[in-house]
Amino acid sequence: MLAVAVIGVAGLVLRVLGARGAYAAVVDRMTRDGAANYATNQEFRTVMTVDYFAKRLGRQASFVSVDKI
Length: 69
Description:
mainly alpha, 2 strands, globular
């Protein structure tokens, strides 16, 4: 289930990144139906960014390290 969510979010991220800086929209979309888990290959930058926008939107997004997938 987590793998499906990660793949779905990855597709969304690739579409949204065409509009660079649209991180709020990505976090909004991935947390719209509740708390979300995500993984990344750029841990430091992505975790900081997602945490910031999740808090700003009043949502919850949790990082899952690659070794836990």
